[in-house]
Specification:
Order of helices and strands: HHEHEEEEHEHEH
Distance between the termini: 46 Å
Number of helices: 6
Radius of gyration: 16 Å
Strand content: 15-25%
Helix content: 25-40%
Strand order of the largest sheet: 2-1-5-6-7
Structural class: alpha/beta
Number of strands: 7
Largest sheet: 5 strands, parallel
Mean pLDDT: 90
Length: about 160
């Protein structure tokens, strides 16, 4: 049965418990940032291409996070930010605490199964990226989700 069509539980907890994994408040984001060490970045770009998909992970690396590059394109690039490129989350060992998505909202769905299999603690969709269905799927699997927020901006805000 489609979970969206399921009747609410008598106490309401069964159908809303997963929503606690949808993080929006600054205190929740600060907690995520303080408990994260390793970030796999799907859609990272090499320095020569630049843009937010390069300089945000670069900033995070300079702030002390371990960045695992998982580019979608650039098959000839073997290293980004001094780290070996991974072509799939399944090859990220040890697994990342967080998966940071630099993909268009419409492209998020193609990464859902891979992310679920990797079991990160958090999936963070960068500013301008959101997918309600994917977010619900992650949240129902017990994975915290942040949508449409810049990790670099939130990190800077959490420090002040």
């Amino acid at each position: 049965m489609d979970h969206k069509l399921m009747p609410p539980a008598s106490d309401g907890s069964e159908t809303t418990e997963w929503r606690s994994h949808l993080l929006e408040h600054s205190s929740q984001l600060a907690e995520v940032l303080s408990s994260t060490q390793r970030i796999a970045v799907i859609g990272i770009k090499p320095e020569i291409v630049g843009g937010p998909a390069y300089y945000v992970p670069e900033y995070l690396q300079s702030a002390g996070y371990e960045i695992v590059p998982v580019p979608v394109y650039y098959p000839d690039i073997a290293e980004i930010l001094g780290a070996p490129v991974q072509r799939s989350l399944s090859t990220v060992i040890p697994p990342a605490d967080m998966v940071l998505l630099f993909r268009r909202s419409g492209d998020v769905a193609q990464h859902v199964e891979e992310i679920l299999a990797a079991k990160p603690r958090v999936v963070w969709m960068q500013l301008g990226i959101q997918d309600a269905e994917a977010a619900e799927t992650f949240a129902r699997a017990g994975i915290d989700v942040v949508q449409n927020k810049c990790l670099m901006i939130e990190h800077r805000n959490a420090r002040h």
